[in-house]
Amino acid sequence: MKAINFICFMLLFVLTPIKVTGQEEIFGIDEYLALIKKHHPVIKQANLKLSQAEEKLLKARGLFDPKLGGKVKQKDFKGTGYYDLWQGEIKIPTWFGVELQSQYNLAEGYYVNPQNITPEEGLWSVGVSLPLAKDLLYDDRRNALKQAKIFQDSERIQRDIKTNEILTKALKAYSYWILYYENKQVYKTFLENAIIRNQGVVKKALAGDIPTIDTLETHLFVKNQELAFNEAKLQEQKAKLVISNFLWVENVPLAITEELVPESNIKMAQLVPNLIGLNNFQANQHPQVQLLENDLTAQDYNLRLKRNNLLPDLRIKYNFLTEHWSDQPVFNEKDYTFGVAFKFPLFLRKERADVRIAKYEIEKISYEKSALAYRLENDIKAQRVLINTQIKQLEILQEIVDGSETLVKAEQRLFALGESSIFLINSRDNKFIENRIKLNKVKNKLNLAYAELISLLQPKID
């Protein structure tokens, strides 16, 4: 008997309430998402790709830049100046396929080729180069510019998709952090209560009011709660490490400190305005479908270019000539140069094959677009069904938890009146804990379901 009393006395001092180190500080989900959107390396990389696309568009516009050129050719042999040929020109390409050009030529010397002979002051010319078939309505330059515009828009969509992908993964990680933190808080509360109860039981046992065997019952319950608390704490620490993967500042990763805790009782649906109201899903507005639509447009332009290559390459060049250039240059319609150039492949095998390949590519993308739109529609419907089911489950579990809490309080009152036992109180507590953990899991499942719906719908996350 003395040995048992000694054990009870020791338990009274060994089992003391757990201490909280540091002051907890809430790391809100808005602050969390803002840090990710501003500093995450993958999102920064996506923004760089968009910047590259903007530069490629500038490069494509450069195909229509005027070009200034010139050349000089001289020959002197044994003191004789054979020829000095000077030439300067400017060419101005236009959107409509016509190229404007102006040129200045000066030829001097004893042995100048007759076709290069110019007046003493040189010869000026102004004219055009005009395609009459191929490249008249469409050409490589116009195609490159249109493709660059589409590429820029596609990179913008890709950036938004990549940003949404990172943010939805971050939301899921945050939801798991909430789950494990709230589980830890449940076990922490019951561990503290179990320690206090054990101390009270030990005092009563020492006073001889209750059997000493009850102290073992409460002691084992404390140890079980301690094990559960330590496991929940470990899970929360792991969740914090996952959260840290998304946190960067100036290319330096951040770590979640011990004092930071998640914002509890958040609803993922509130992060996106009108998420619940987005019942009328329109596939043509979905970013991934828009991406394929851009691919289709790009292939349409490509097909147009391939069809352009089926036309004969017929070009004319016409230039007015004058030897005097002033504020009002005089052009004589009888002074000109004129030329015609013609090229045309006889069988067009390469060109016809290119057209058919482009058509096949358009058909392939069209099939992919239709399949994607149908799959997205069904996935979104299935996700909404899952969300509605989880909401109902949450309501049921909340009712069960409320009932379990009522039973626990009633059992504690009965124990205080001497009409219950430690075994029954521990049983009620265990069931209450089990239901609280189930409730936390269903909350997490609901948040994950909303995060997945966000991933499917690809809306803008505030």
Mean pLDDT: 88
Largest sheet descriptor: 6 strands, antiparallel
Please name the fourth-level CATH homologous superfamily of the largest domain.
Outer membrane efflux proteins (OEP)
DSSP, total strands: 10
Share of helix, binned: 55-70%
* Form type: elongated
Our estimate of the beta-strand percent is 15-25%
Question: Spans with pLDDT under 50 lasting ≥5 residues?
Answer: 1-21
Strand order of the largest sheet: 2-3-4-5-9-10
Summed up, the domain count is 2
N-to-C order of helices and strands? HEHHEEEEHHEEEHEEHH
Provide the CATH architecture of the largest domain: Up-down Bundle
Number of helices: 8
State the distance separating the first and last CA atoms: 67 Å
Main attributes of the structure:
2 domains; Outer membrane efflux proteins (OEP); 16% strand; 462 residues; two-stranded parallel ribbon; 8 helices
Would you kindly provide a written description of the structure presented here, covering whatever features stand out?
The protein has 462 residues and is α+β, with helices and mostly antiparallel strands. It folds into 2 domains: 2-61 and 141-303 and 352-457, Up-down Bundle (Outer membrane efflux proteins (OEP)); 67-137 and 313-347, no CATH class. Helices cover 59% and strands 16% of the residues. The chain has helices spanning 2-14, 29-39, 41-61, 140-207, 213-244, 287-308, 349-416, 422-457; strands spanning 25-27, 67-77, 80-93, 99-108, 123-131, 248-249, 252-253, 260-262, 313-322, 336-343. The chain starts with a helix and ends in a 5-residue tail after the last helix.
